[in-house]
Amino acid sequence: MAHAFIQEKELFPPVVPFNQGYLDRGIHRIHYEQCGNPDGVPVLFLHGGPGAGIAPAHRRLFNPNRFHCVLFDQRGCGQSQPHGEIADNTTQHLIDDIEALRTTFGIDRFVLFGGSWGSTLALAYAIAHPENVSRLILRGIFLGTDAEVNWFLNDMGRFFPEAHESFVEFLPLQERSDLLTSYHRRLIDSNRHTHQAAAERWASYETSCSTLRSGVRHVGGKLALSMARLEAHYFVNQCFLASDHILKNLDRIKHLPAEIIQGRHDVICPPVTARILAKGWGPRAKLRLIDEAGHSTFETGIAHALLAALEKCR
Hints:
By secondary structure, the protein is of the alpha/beta class.
């Protein structure tokens, strides 16, 4: 059995951004970082969630000599302000933020690198602006459909029953028939105790199901709130995408090369979705299923495959 998580020595050394700051976007201030070589291959890192945010470890996936890496905290999460804000927070707003970053930094085309919700956002941006994308590297495919949301809320418990029971039993018995509505109501409640308690239960459920090796993992604080509130906000609004928007618009991006990295045992985003995407995309999309892996970026097989995909970028 391979190591559950990649060892630090296998990643690139810790890197300090050569530029970071905020982009003012209406009521939101978007936190960004630029790392690596300013003259290198431009790559945009898109984090998951919605609401997870970026972390220093994400920078270490990119060779600092070869890549000009742009990372940013999407609206309402990480160091972006205001934290947990759902007003003016839709997929189209995020697409527009990406475009604002691209033009602000004078980037012509960039590699889109995104996992989970980051794969959704990468695909949505590429469909909107294919001329600004050179290739896509995607992990843990999520297409933002109601079926996938229903899987996450209900059927994921078939594989992680302990975590799912804890998720469900947080709610009063009479509110368990519609988990999304019941959680969403609590997560947007202005009372801090109400929304924080619900957020921690939601985020802990998701994180406990995210790797091949099971384990009860508690998520608290600001990260729990942004993850849970923004996910619920997007889920109740069908991720602000028309029905089957991505699959119906693949013709706009079929000419672009794509590497799709998918854990065979990814329970949060099951591999069937990645296969549907790859088949619909055609010969320019290469799907790699990693047998000994779940959903997490830093599980050994997933991380190695992502690093190998980045090596192909020129």
